[in-house]
Amino acid sequence: MADVTLTIDGKAVSVPAGTTILKAAQGIGEHVPTICFHEHCTANALCRVCVVEVEGARVLSPACVAQVSEGMKVQTRSERVQRSRRTILEMLDSAVDLSEAESIQPMLKEYAADGERFADGARRDHPLLDDNPMYIRDYAKCVLCWRCVQVCADDAQYTYAINFGKRGFETSIATFFDKPMPATTCVFCGQCVGVCPTGALKPKREWLLQEGATPDEIMQATRAERRRKRKA
Amino acid sequence: MLTPDRIVPTTCPYCGVGCALQLHIKDDFIYRVTSPFESVVNRGNLCVKGRFGYDFIYHPDRITTPLIRRTPQTAGRRTQAFDRSEWREATWDEALDLVADRLAEIYRRDGPEAMAVYCCAKATNEDNYLLQKMFRALFRTNNVDHCTRLCHAGSVVALLKSLGTSAMSNTAAEVMRNDVFIVTGSNTTENHPIIALQMKEAVMKRGAKLIVIDPRRLELCDFAALWLPVKPGTNVPVFSAMAHVIVKENLVNREFVEARTTGYDELAQSLEKFTPEYAESVSGVDRHLIVEAARMYARAKNGAIYWGMGISQLSHGTASALALIHLALLTGHIGREGTGLNPLRGQNNVQGASDSGAMPFFYPGYMEVDKEENATKWERAWNIEPGGLSRKRGLTTTEILSNAKPGGVRALYIMGENPMMTEPNLNLTRHHMEQLEFLVAQDVFINESGAFADVFLPAASWAEKEGTFTNTDRRVQRVRQAIAPRGQARPDWQIICDVAARIEQRLGRATARWNYEEPEEIFREMADVAVMLKGVTYRRIEMTGLQYPVPDEAHPGTPFLFSETFPSGRGRFFPLEYVPAAELPDDEYPFILTTGRLLEHWHGGTMTRHSQLDALFPQPLMDLHEVDAARCGVKTGDAVRVSSRRGSVVLRANVSPKTNPGVVFIPMHFAEAAANLLTIDALDPQAKIPEFKACAVKIEIARAEELPTQKELMERGRY
């Protein structure tokens, strides 16, 4: 494919047409933060923390999906970009429990997000769902990045056990008719747990250990009792 | 948030895909498993067993001390002891001395024919190499086999006869380059879940056409262009009718057939009788589907075939695999990237155990035992006097037990296998086990077979030792110690070395060498003679495994085979006859039983039934079609008694769209309703593989109290 030349933060760079701004920036060592983006999932530009400023564009562009074009001038750290990212992080922090979001915690510091800015805002309070032996779902920690839905669908497993339920602020990841996981098409591959960035999805054993259970108690809690009929 | 003490990269211990795992550990407790997204094998994806099925290593029933039976066992009156009170704890020295004393005594008295060993497709290459070395070098017997006999023996023999080698010809991930592929006799989504993901992707994202040929309506049928619902045991007529169509419609790749095969004319002649009409009459598959499948596969640019136990586990398993091989040879869909013949190997290391010589006909590296030059090479490697090694082929897995009688096999050493679940016709197997004079079990739990043993040697699990596994596409990968062995458990290779050194001393033999510091020394010793592995070193496979053949240290490995030639020179056609299954349904036993596996469980259940996996599928179910359910008057959840001429089990019925009328399915994993109590011990004459996939049964309504468990039926939504 033909190469396209653009400038990112004043540096000229040539990349094949069709490359995203995110990849072009990474290629020259410019760090663009991401939350919902995952190398092995389809990018959906949901979280908007990767936005960059493209000269002449009316709005900020999500770098994970926006493709480069000839002569494009990109700012990855302009004041407008920084402010937008900070606001996104502040809103997330006000509504969601980010305490176990390993990749987001450093961003809160880097962008000096004010945890009190939306202190009056509603929080996404969800009860922890413990409906199967393999993993727990703690949607109070969910940032709706959609990775779990995608790997359950065409990004990996083709199982389609989960999707978005409800709409707007009420949106959460759900099974159809809120059935418990075993009653859905779920095959318990745990691909969703593997891509969850916030600790909303967690192996049950990890959760129990974190709650202070001993290994023996964990064995008890995760094991179905079985009695064997034995021949004398 | 938990911070792991360490994250250890290793290889999954379940199926032959060989997924890369990362074990997250705190205080020697594995609490999370992830997979690197860069892994060439599984690209970060895992199945339920790989991601959640490791917890058996912490199960309270795990045996972590050497045990000796309290009541001495005698041939003919041997019993099972599941309860710990029937065993006493022993020191390693006492247990090892007892094993060495008894094995040496029986060998001195009855000679090589009395000794036999089951190696283990779950253990490492190094473990298996050493165990076959012990029996060959010390007891001069080739009575060495493992569960490959029960799984792909038919495929192995067919591939060896036709092409001269037995492994998958291509890399699993090459399915992405197929435009047409056949999956037959394989429930890939449940048994090789990660390969199934790549198959689904090939269909959904690359537009490949999938042809499923299987007696069950498997999940993959949802992704298939064609499904040929073949009756169990009628593969040969169906595949041969496809070949018939290919020949009649001039779809043969003439160039390939002339350049690279032999026996075409005889084959073409033998195919005359296999018309689609004839195939339909015996297999129940619509003739038009057969014609369409033949055309679709033959006209493909890159066609490939993937198959599982449904091809090999038949009394004509070898013929069944040969009929498939014919299709590839006729169309030239082999020897190029994205084509090929791919038997999907079951166990994590069934390929490796076979490569490492855990077979009665082969030394490591598939060197035939009855060829003088091979025996000479291993005699040199093992410091054995010329002519010392046995040149006689040994007994196979099933034959070892059927020869357990005075004058036959007297002592059996079982590492990690569970014949009391996995052999056909278990009532007969039980009788054979009772006849043994001495039995050693080396395992992590006392399973149905270990319960018969005199001595139990507690082995380290896969997370507690170092070594290598070889996956289904011939990739040798590292297994790493992540945690300390539980209790006094020890790695298999160390136990074997200690037993062997003791026996060697008792027999007064020159040492074959048993003093290894590290498993890599064992691998080196093997690879120096088994040249296909010569270029594999632990250093080279630190990050990514290598696919053998790897003839030297500069060689990059071999992703697909046969690009220039076949090891046998030309691919050979073998005219075939249709031989029906050994036992056909009749008025008394009107249903065909086919057996198989479930996503949540593994084979004899030693691991998964001690895991949280058991909570996802806690009881045995028999799948049957709604037509048959109505005929028998049962509905889902009802107790039924299923009986064959050999045995009987009681379990719950599950009316399922996965089966066809006349065919019922029972998974093999559940001891409380063991499918193998019903199966028939008819063997393929060449491969000696039993016919697990077809026998005749009857179904009667049973009382709920007769069920082995009163557990309610669990609501599951997965297909």
Explained architecture:
The complex is a heterodimer of chains A (232) and B (719). By secondary structure, chain A is an alpha+beta fold. Chain A folds into 2 domains: 3-80, Ubiquitin-like (UB roll); 135-222, Alpha-Beta Plaits, CATH 3.30.70.20. Chain A has 7 helices and 9 strands. Chain A has a 5-stranded mixed beta sheet with strand order 2-1-5-3-4, sandwiched between helices. Chain A is globular, with a radius of gyration of 21 Å. Chain A starts with a strand and ends in a 10-residue tail after the last helix. The model of chain A is unreliable at 226-232 (pLDDT under 50). Chain B is an alpha/beta fold and 719 residues long. Chain B folds into 4 domains: 6-58, Single Sheet (N-terminal domain of TfIIb), CATH 2.20.25; 67-143 and 359-473 and 482-547, 3-Layer(aba) Sandwich (Rossmann fold); 153-343, Dimethylsulfoxide Reductase, domain 2 (3-Layer(aba) Sandwich); 591-706, Barwin-like endoglucanases, CATH 2.40.40.20. Chain B contains 22 helices and 30 strands. In chain B, the strands form 8 sheets. Chain B has a 7-stranded mixed beta sheet with strand order 5-4-18-17-16-6-7. In chain B, β2 and β3 form a beta hairpin. The model of chain B has no long low-confidence stretch (mean pLDDT 96). Chains A and B meet through α5, α6 and α7 of A and β3, α1, α6 and α21 of B.
Largest sheet of chain A: 5 strands, mixed
> How many H/I helical runs of chain A?
7
At CATH level 3, the topology of the largest domain in chain A is: Alpha-Beta Plaits
Q: What is the SS-derived class of chain A?
A: alpha+beta
Provide the low-confidence segments of chain A as ranges.
226-232
- Quaternary: heterodimer
CATH class call of the largest domain in chain B: Alpha Beta
How many distinct folded domains of chain B?
4
